[in-house]
Amino acid sequence: MSTAVAAKPKPRLQEKYETLVVPEMMKKFALTHRLAAPRILKIVVNAGVGKAIENKKRMDDAVRDISIVTGQKPLITRAKTAVSGFKLRKGMPIGCKVTLRGKRMYEFMDRLISLAIPRIKDFRGLPRNSFDGQGNYTMGLEEQTVFPEINADTLEFTQGMDITFVISGGKKEQAFELLRLMGMPFRAQ
Fold this sequence. Notes:
This protein is an alpha+beta fold. The chain is 31% helix and 17% strand.
């Protein structure tokens, strides 16, 4: 007697990408194959914790908050060189980062678009000029409390973070259109 394992459903944003975004991108940019359409390869969430030099608890709090938000344990980044003006020695922990791929990436992006970004105070849209030369997009958040998973009452420190969307294809116009179709709220020109 065999037991059938039910297939786990795809994340909502992944379904949207496959059923709506790819056909729209193929039509708009005259692509001949589905695999020619740009896709999000990974999302990197990075928090620089320079204040951890003075207070070690800040690094622990940043690691805890990023792991709550992303569902994955962050990697602690260390200083590569010593800078005496900042009292920084080589090898000291100065930040943490998480690289999300696959299902976790789509689920994080869905929470970011539908829950976190609408909670930003005085939000007027994401800037359109934050693309690099390869079509990757980076946005910054000033504090982690925009995510509903973080309880603002228990926080001692607010911590900002950078979120980078690494996109295949290397063209800024196609990367912008991909993120716009996925639901990223960009500013009107």
